[in-house]
User: What shape does this take?
Amino acid sequence: MEALRTVSTVAPPKVITAHLSKPLFSLSFTQKRSKSPLLNLTQFTKSKFTKFNVISPSVWTQPAAPPEEETEPDTDEKFDWFSHWYPLMPVCDLDKRAPHGMKVLGLDVVVWWDKNANQWKVFDDRCPHRLAPLSEGRIDQWGRLQCVYHGWCFNGSGNCKLIPQAPLDGPPVHSFPKACVGVYPSTIQYDIVWFWPSTDPQYKDILSKKKPLYIPELSYPSYAFQTYHRDIPYGYEVLIENLMDPSHVQYAHRGIISAKEPR
Assistant: This one.
């Protein structure tokens, strides 16, 4: 009953009045004389009621809403590889006089020094003209990245500043959006060039919202570390598996890396 009262609602008076028009049953109160002499000593007055109608009030109830099922948090969330900063190369291994190409996360990128902005830039390693690798180009005398194929020149913002084959008195085709090259957000941390792997303009200011991985020890003056760059012809998963398997060193690197002699 307690549960019924909790979830039930009594109908408004108008609704109850509508439902009280039909009696459920009737009880007859007509007086009869008894043949017993004892009962006849007491005289009963005749009842004014001949019938008594018993009416049950109608109660309007709503079905209780089914309990909401508790949903467990989604623990199978996929890792978005393209929503994080990645280290590209130590600054000490870069040459400001030439562009440097590399492949990261399947992306071909080029790192070059923009002397006008005094910053390292990371571009998509393909010229928008004929898709020639910009890493095979050069830095011209004005500090622009020049394509090795037709000499198109780009500034640090990815805008094309020169198309040698275009007439000077013709339309400014070099300013067309399709003549621009993709630019990746980049920064320097721990003397390493980092980049955000997306050229979408919405990530232009991603550095103000999310910064590269912070390693406190690398900021300590008393902490010594060394950085270097090395190209390897396989993915990170093979490298990690190899580094986590020290038992192969004395066999696979015998005579190269100091290790105990095999028994």
Q: What stands out?
A: The radius of gyration is 44 Å. Helices lie at 2-7, 13-19, 236-243, 249-252. Residues 34 and 41 are 11 Å apart (CA to CA). Residues 2-54 form one domain.
